[in-house]
Write a structure and sequence with these properties.
Length: 402
């Protein structure tokens, strides 16, 4: 293999075009990444919420390297030392039941769907899942059907049966979607791909009450909002609402692919041998990474840092928004934030990237920021400078065009 190969041309020739990348990133450390030409960027996307402890954190790197040299994989036919230890850390920080480990957010949500159906089989054959419009739960056939966005479903019909949609933050809409075949309601505490829209306290508390009244399960998709992203371990912990199970992935492995579900004690033993499985779920290597991530978040006070830096960053974004009529608001929790426009946000994303800041337009009009939780005041200040400069440039371009 040659070190001087044209990576872009190789990608176009051999990789299916499911994404449209435009940078060749070759190195990362903390909140920063560098491209092939050596240019530095502030990474306020963090692998779409994956790198909560930053790029190449020394403890994660050491944990993965040491475990790789010792034992990478044995399959779940055997115990491994790290899996129950990581399960304990997750269970004790959340719902008190048990874990199932997999490899991605889509797989975690698939596991929740199967768990609901198995639970509902002996309860009158309940199998339907109520999900929210503008949600996002994955790209497998079941999870893209659970996703309440037609754009991700288009072309993959016929879609699997068993999903009903309700309006996010509209309790009566959810209530009316539940019937005698409903097994569970699946909700994000913050809709990430839908534009970084937090649930209201009334909605989350009401969901728990309605699910209890109707005898159905309540699941939270914490794939993007979990592992400290919002300033608490999991997004649901901001609300008066304890779900029956949660889905995790993204930041769980600190960059190593990993997913999981965590259940309450009531659902801990619904899955029995033969009901569900994953060859690569919860390997010694993945769990070593997960344990290191939790250790870093705990020992470096990153939950508190996410709250403090999130408050500072949000205040700066709101000040910038006050100068531009095309910015309609700022929303989010902790370090899961978005600047919302009255027009598509992609153009501002492109300007920011050119100036050295990585973020992502989502839900068309929202510019999403997901910086690593290790971000400091200087990083936030520099990011705000770039955002302010980018908004000024965008305003000038719009003025010339009009």
């Amino acid at each position: 293999m040659s070190g001087d190969e044209n990576i872009v041309e190789l990608h176009r020739r051999y990789v299916m075009p499911t994404y449209s990348p435009d940078l060749v990133l070759v190195r990362g450390k903390g909140v920063r990444v560098w491209d092939q030409e050596g240019r530095e960027y502030l990474d306020f996307l963090a692998g779409i919420g994956v790198l909560n402890v930053g790029h190449c954190h020394p403890r994660v790197v050491a944990a993965v390297g040491n475990q790789a040299a010792k034992l990478m994989h044995v399959s779940n036919l055997y115990y491994n030392e790290n899996q129950p230890r990581l399960a304990r850390e997750l269970v004790e920080r959340s719902l008190g039941g048990k874990c199932f480990f997999c490899n991605s957010g889509a797989e975690a949500n698939e596991a929740l769907i199967k768990l609901a159906r198995l639970w509902g089989k002996d309860r009158g054959g309940r199998y339907r899942i109520v999900t929210m419009r503008n949600s996002f739960h994955g790209r497998t056939l079941a999870t893209l059907t659970a996703t309440g966005q037609e754009k991700v479903q288009k072309g993959f019909e016929p879609l699997p049966d068993g999903f009903t949609y309700a309006d996010f933050n509209d309790l009566e809409s959810v209530r009316s979607a539940i019937d005698d075949r409903t097994a569970a309601v699946l909700v994000e505490s913050v809709q990430g791909e839908g534009g970084v829209v937090p649930a209201t306290p009334e909605f989350m508390a009401g969901l728990r009450r309605v699910c209890d009244q109707e005898g159905v399960l309540l699941f939270c998709d914490e794939v993007q909002s979990g592992m400290g992203r919002t300033g608490k371990w999991f997004g649901y912990q901001h609300y008066d609402c304890i779900p029956d199970a949660i889905a995790l992935a993204k930041a769980l492995g600190g960059g190593f692919p990993m997913g999981a579900i965590v259940t309450s004690s009531a659902l801990a033993d619904v899955f029995q041998p033969g009901n569900h499985a994953s060859t690569f779920g919860g390997t010694p290597l993945a769990c070593a990474a997960g344990l290191a991530v939790i250790g870093v978040i705990e020992d470096e006070g990153l939950l508190d840092n996410a709250r403090r830096m999130g408050t500072k960053f949000r205040a700066g974004l709101e000040e910038i928004a006050s100068r531009h009529e095309f910015v309609t608001g700022i929303r989010g929790l902790g370090l899961m934030l978005a600047m919302v426009f009255d027009r598509p946000a992609k153009d501002v994303e492109i300007i920011m990237r050119r100036k050295g800041l990585l973020a992502l337009a989502t839900g068309k009009t929202a510019l999403r920021f997901l910086p690593p939780l290790v971000v400091d005041e200087d990083d936030v200040a520099r990011a705000l400078e770039i955002i302010a400069d980018s908004c000024r440039e965008f305003a000038q371009i719009e003025k010339r065009v009009s």
